[in-house]
Amino acid sequence: MLSSRRVRPRRTPSPVIRITHWIGALSMLAMIGSGWQIYNASPILPFEFPAWATLGGWLGSGIAWHFAAMWVLMAAGVVYMGYGVLSGHFRRDLRPVGPRAIGRDMAQALRCRLSHAAGHYNAVQRLLYTGVLIVALLTVASGLSIWKPVQLGWLTWLFGGYDVARRIHVAMMTLIVAFLFIHIALALLVPSTLFGMVFGRHPSAAPEASVQKGAAR
Amino acid sequence: MSQHRLDRSAIAPELRRIERRLMLKGALSLGGLSMLSGCALDDEPSVERALSAMSRFTDRMQALLFSRQRLAREFDASRITHPFPYNAYYDESAIRTVDPAGWRLEVGGLVSDRRPWTLAQFRALPQKRQITRHICVEGWSAIGDWSGVPLSMFLQRVGADLRAKYVNFRCFDDYSTSIDMATALHPQTILALDYGDHALPPAYGAPMKVRIPTKLGYKNPKYLASIEVTNRFPGGYWEDQGYDWFGGS
């Protein structure tokens, strides 16, 4: 009984989460690079993205990449969201906790004192991950609304019309890029989390976990 | 003059292939430095094949999403963009014009009556007006005011096979594009003769432009010269270079 309870905190991302995370990450990078290519064709802000950071080489290719990656991202997203809801992953791990806990964990994080127990999501992580999931949903929805302003006219209307929806799409992209900087920096600061997202277990936890599995059986 | 034009059309496909190769070269050099080296992968035949397969899949999904009943939003005259922008694959100084009295629209393919049409014949048919948003593949958009003959009415008049897959448009500025039959029969797809209260000016495609508010700008050809109904996939000027063929909004 005790051993099985001790297994729980060692929980690492399930294969479904890990596979959809990395497929989603790659397709999201492709969406961003090709999106910058498309943005450069008719910039709505007084700057362009450097050509070396864009994907596709010219507008037509950028669009081809953008839509190819879109189907991959949506497929990974549907599986991830479905699994997150049905498995309880969202409710258990990602649901944001109260503002006090967020304040406490944020203060610890800023002093680099925040503990990262394996399989446990702290308040800052919960807030960031829930936030980026909502932003990703808004990015996809606003993207669909500027792709199909006639067939999905209701969606375009919800986003305030074609021109506003276009700006929302760019704003949401910016938030995702900002998240990526934070996310990657934190993953590099706490490499065990990166290890877990790649291999599904933590280097230090590995032998212990397998022994406990045996004991539980 | 006619000899000159014949030559131009004879070399057009080769020119397009060269242009495409140059564009892909551009993709290679720009992307070579990129961290996302997928840009360079564009030149890799397997990646290009995968991308065009995905593009065809996207086309099929777009066709599924399309409804002949769903209308593009129409606006008040106060929302019209002034001046409505000129846009083509060449500069405004290179616009070609024709004598409206001598202009004929060639009709071909799966139709029972292949006689060419004059402008007067189009003027004699009922006209439909629309103030709709033109959306360019580049992302910008502008609201304009077009009127003309519904394409569905024209296709019925010439006895077109309405079960055919494609309607192909060729233009006298060597542009071309093609659309699916469902879009051709959409009530807002018109053969536009007028912009605002006047005949189309040269910059907007005189004497005839196909206005399709359910499709992106590159599927709205100007300077129309011929219409062909066909089951053979016709492609188009930009589509052959990599824009998705359906191009729906």
TrEMBL record, chain A:
BP terms from Gene Ontology: respiratory electron transport chain
Positions of transmembrane segments: 21-39, 63-86, 127-147, 167-190
GO terms, molecular function: electron transfer activity; heme binding
Assigned GO CC terms: plasma membrane
SUPFAM superfamilies for this protein: Transmembrane di-heme cytochromes (SSF81342)
Name of a matching Pfam family: Ni_hydr_CYTB
Keyword entries, A-Z: Cell membrane, Membrane, Transmembrane, Transmembrane helix
Signal sequence interval, chain numbering: none
Record flagged with keyword Chaperone: no
Boundaries of every Cytochrome b561 bacterial/Ni-hydrogenase domain copy: 14-199
InterPro entries in UniProt: Cyt_b561_bac/Ni-Hgenase, Di-haem_cyt_TM, Hydrogenase_cytochrome
Topology in the lipid bilayer: Multi-pass membrane protein
Protein name stated in the entry: Cytochrome b561 bacterial/Ni-hydrogenase domain-containing protein
Record organism: Tanticharoenia sakaeratensis NBRC 103193
Biological classification of the source: Bacteria, Pseudomonadati, Pseudomonadota, Alphaproteobacteria, Acetobacterales
TrEMBL record, chain B:
Pfam family, one: Oxidored_molyb
Ranges in a coiled coil: none
Family matches, as InterPro entries: OxRdtase_Mopterin-bd_dom (IPR000572), OxRdtase_Mopterin-bd_sf (IPR036374)
Listed name of the protein: Oxidoreductase molybdopterin-binding protein
Sequence ranges assigned to domain Oxidoreductase molybdopterin-binding in this UniProt record: 95-238
Lineage: Bacteria, Pseudomonadati, Pseudomonadota, Alphaproteobacteria, Acetobacterales
